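Data availability (excerpt). The following record was deposited with the supplementary files.
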Amino acid sequence: MKLRYMIASMLLAAFISGCGEDSIETISRTKTPEEIYLMARDYINGYDHEISHDKAFLLYSMAAERGYPPAEYMIASLYHTGSMVEADMDKAADYYIRAADHGIVEAQCVIGGTLFENNGLKVSEDVALDNLMKAAVSDSKAKTQLAYLYLTGTYVRKNVKRGLELLNEAVKYNEPRALVALSSAYINGDFGVEKDYYKGISLLNIAVAQHDNLEALIAYSDVYMNGKGVAADERRGLDYLRQAAERDSIQAQYLLGSYYWKHQDYAKSVHWLTLAAGNGMTPAQEQLGYLYANGLGVEQNEDTAIEWYEKASLRGSSSARYQLAVLLSHKADRADRISELVSDLAELARTGDLSAIKKLYYLYAGSRSPELQSGAEEYLQKILDSKNMELITQIAKERFSGSVNLYADKDLAFRLMNYAAMSGYTPAQIQLADWYRAGEIQNEMNSEENNSMNAYIWYSIAAERDGTAKNSRRNIHLRKDEVQRANSEINRLKKEINNK
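Predicted structure:
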C-alpha cells in the first residue's frame, strides 16, 4: 500500500508540482482525504481548474490510499469500467472490498451482485454473500436479491419465511423487482403463499406505474393472457409484452418470439427472436438457428443457422452444440470439429446413456461424411443392445421413408422392424403388416405374391394384444390353402417369439 501511495504521489507531483497552493507538498500537509477527494471532483467538472482526468484520478488515488471510503469506491469504479484508466478487474475488486469493509453500501452491492451476474469481478462466493447480507440491512435491491437466495436455497439454506420477510421489507421502498416478485407470489401461489389476486394485482399496479419496471409489464402480460384474477384478454396481454419488448426488455422480446413461434407466425417470431438473440439471449439464438435451418419465417440458410448455433454453443448450450454438429455434418470436411462439439455426448454414450446414443446415431447416420457415417453402426448396435423396441421401431420408420435426420434405407428399415416384431413388440408387428399389405417390402425374403399372406400373419400375431390388428386382418382375403399355410407360420413365429 505504501509503495502504491509513493508511486501515486510521484506521478501527482509530476502533474501539479510548482502550482502554488496545489503543490503536492501543500496537498499532503494541509488537505484532508475528503478535501483531496473534492479536489479530484473539481478536476473532473472543471471547477476553478481546467478539466484533467489524469489529475483527478491521481487525487482520487491519494485519497483512497489514505483510507477515504468514497475515494476507494470511486477508484474501484474507475478500474471496473475502464474510465480514466485501463480496466483492471483485480484492482477493482481490491478497492471495492476496501470500500465495502469501510461501510460503503454501493460497494457491498456490487460485490454481492457477482452472485447474480458476471460483472468481471473475481471474488469468492463467501465474500460476495457476506457483502450482500451487509448491504441488505439498508439497501432495498440487496434485500430483494437476498430474498431470492433464501426462497430458492441458493448459496444459503432455504428459508422461505425469511425470504418473504425480506421481500416485504423491500416492497415498503417500492423496490421494482420486489414488487414484481411478491405480486407473483400472491398471484401464482409461489413458495407456499396463499393465492390472493387482489393483493398481487395491487402490488403489480404499483410496479407497472414505475416507468422503467419492464418486468412488471411482463408480469401484467401474464395476468391478462392467462386470466389470473382478471378476465382473460390476450390482445391486452400481448400489448403489455410488446411495450416491454420495444423498450429493449430481452425477456419480453424472447417471450414474444416464442409466442409467435407457438402460433406459427414465424416471420414475427424471427423479428423478436433476432432482437433477443442480438442482445445475448441464448435460447433465442438457438431458436433462430432452427428457423434458419428449416426456412421458417425466413429463407432457408444453413450458414446463418450455423452462425446462430455457434453463438449459443459458445454461451454453453449443449443442445445448440448438437444442432451445430448436425448442420456441420452436412459438410464433408468438418469431422474433427463435429467430434469436438459432441464430446460430452460421446462421454455419456460410453456410460450407456440411451438419449446420448440416440442423438449420436442420428447425427452420424445423417452425415454426408463417410468417416462419420461409418460411426453410425456402432451406435445402432448399442440401440439394439438396449432392447428399447419403441426407439428401434421409430428408427425403422424413419429409415423406411427418410426424414429430416436420416436417409431412406428400406432394407435396413425392414431388418430393424422385423427385429422389433420378432421381439414381441406389438406396434412393430402392426407396422410390418402394414408395409406388407401396401406392397412396400420387395426383397429376396419376400415376393409380391405373398405380401397379403405376410400381412395376415403379422396382423394375427399382433391381434392378441391389439384389437385394431384384428380388424385390419379382416380386410385381407386369402384362399383356404393360404390360410392353412399362414396359420402354420403363425404358430412357428409365436414359438420363436416366446422363446426369445
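Summary of structural features: The two ends are 80 Å apart (CA to CA).
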